[in-house]
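Order emerges. As here.
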Amino acid sequence: MVANKRKMFWRLVLRALRLRLNRVLIIFAALTVGAAIVTAMSAVYFDINSKMSQELRTFGANFYIGAEDTGLIETKQVDDIINRAPTGLISAGSSYLYGVARADLEKVVIMGVQFDQLKALTPYWQITGSRIEIGFDDRNAMIGKKLAERLNLKVGDKITLTKNSMEKYSLRIKGIVESGDVTDSMLIVNLELAQNWLEKDGLASNALLIVKNDQGQADEFAQLLRQQYPNLDIRPIRKVSASEGQILNKIKGLMGLISAVILVLATLCVNTTLIAIVGERAKEFALQKALGAKRRDIITQIGTETLIIALFAIVTGLIIGYILAQILGLTVFKASIDMRLPVIPLTVALSLIVAFIAVIVPTKRALNVKTANVLKGE
């Protein structure tokens, strides 16, 4: 008896889905779109911190360390700060030393820097020739575009620094830098060379770092360092650091709003379609009631039909959403989006909630079908 009842139940469910395939496809499409958007948006949402941080690295350094007065800082202190920082907090950092030196024809401003950190700290530089990426390279230099034009220097030429009319030091120009700031008028050399030439061993004018700041870590790190190094001026560079959290929050909020709107529209679409289906099946429900079907039986039947559609829609939506997330990642961040752990359960949960909400009113209508009125004359 139970087996026959179960067999009849599934026959009614599958028959209902088959006979109203067009409306079923509409419900499937609405739920699929909702699941796909939620999958894509949540995948980007949970992966955006790392991707946005990487994207914002094109702005360069976002953390400044200098002296409280106009003096110099010790490079040993900068190295200690970098080495003692939590793993993954600082992705690049270098001390900088500025000074004036005499070249062949005129005095020039030299900037000493750790070459191996420079690419990360100044990704926006436009280089003619090539960067110097070997930290201890003291035979080559880079030169700002304006200074190169003024001295009539090209890539491959040599510039000679002189001191006390006796000591000379030649450097080959490996790259010409166009940065859009004062660096365009500087000669960029190895930090140790600058310290030796300017007779300021172990000293620097300031230091610049790239500090992870997707959750406000830069401010916390700066506050901690100020307590440990009260003689230093330590602060995030606001034009970059402050913007990271703001941009991330705005993008996340926008993605959440888009997902919410799509889910509301999907709910309305499914609800309207189910109401139409219930209207068409009024005689069917009335007949089931007349044959002894209970309210629970009708609720289970409609719920099962909707659940079957929803499950197929969720699987399809997850696949489409993943593809859409990759398109968004490659378009915006030039990188693929990783599918984080919360994405799948979130998509499943929200899609099922949409289906549940959408089926409430149609189910009530099915339960309120008046058997006598509907079957009158049958």
Remarks:
- The CA atoms of residues 20 and 159 lie 83 Å apart.
- The chain has a mean pLDDT of 85.
- DSSP finds twelve helices and twelve strands in the chain.
- The longest strand covers residues 90-102.
